[in-house]
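Could you help me review a protein record that somebody else here produced? What it holds is a sequence and that sequence's fold in token form. I need someone to confirm that the token line plausibly describes how this chain folds. Take the sequence as given and treat only the tokens as open to question. This is what I was given:
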Amino acid sequence: MASRPPPRDGHAELGPTLAALLDPEPGRRAEALGRLKSLYVRCDEGSCSTNPEIAAAALPYALRALTSADAGVRVTGADALGLLAFNSKN
């Protein structure tokens, strides 16, 4: 599955963040999920929105994580999919 290029809106850290979702080190994966959330979900004055470009770039990585031989990476993939399923209108 080909990965999409990072969004063009200045998210230089997105590429390394997405790659870290597949890292064998649990701490790095946890940090990556936190960074992904901060890039994907923006909240201002009680209102939250999501960035569909971030979701489009992250989805292939999350799906790839689900097929990993490492159970921890698979869990990270599932967590990332859960984050990407977040709908700001709910």
DSSP finds four helices and two strands in the chain. Helices lie at 14-20, 26-40, 52-66, 71-84. The radius of gyration is 13 Å. The longest strand covers residues 41-44.
